[in-house]
Amino acid sequence: MASKRVLLLGGHGKVSLLLTPHLVARSWHVTSVIRDAAQKDDILSMVDGDHRSVDVMVSSLEDVKSKSDAQQVIDRSKPDYIVWSAGMLARAGGKGGPARTQSIDRDSCIHFIKAAAETKSISKFLLISYIGSRRTKAPWWTDEDWKGTQEVNNGVLKHYYAAKLAADECLTAIASGRKDLQAIILRPGLLTDEKATGKVRLGRTKARGSITRGDVAAVAAHLLDSGVKGWLDLLEGDETVADAVKRAIEDEVDCVEGEDVDSMIRRYA
Known about the structure:
The protein is α/β, with parallel strands linked by helices. The chain is built from nine helices and eleven strands.
């Protein structure tokens, strides 16, 4: 079977750097999109010299202003799968403020989602979001969980929340109209740089908690190599990554539960 090709958007991010070797280990080919050529060596250093399995494309996501712009990147890389791991929580307080957050985390991401949906060779789109990206209280959350989430979303993460929510809902809506597109929205809690533990809680978790970037990368790779789709919340826990993904599949977990998917479809599909 031919090796799968993965377009990794936001290739120099901390999660992306850790994700790259997981993808290469599956004998997949990775095109890592970065904004600065000086970042290339950091990408290649993650794959132990296996440079034939990784291409580095210098292309700023901030310059993607339309679906056509996104399509050009897709056409150059010819992926089977797309992973959006750009922006992340660092962007919420990063350089450029709200305008840059909207430009990258919302607009550019949505352009790639729409372009991917019209590219029939693309069968999977994995979007790394965050656990608080939702409009309503998750049915399994406590009132305290929801109160804390709202405080963060309406406060320090106000603009990031709006941008990520729009992208999450767009992917959900568009995937509903293209059944052969496996849309995976991975929603980690607070990201840390501690060593990966290999133990996680995936699916219906509490609203607050942390997870190492290394564990996020491992889970993302496993999800991309599985048949799971939908929204999946992620925190540190006591299951192995493989067991957590297996359970999510068997239990048909989708944390979009409680959200108004029909409304998403009306807005984006």
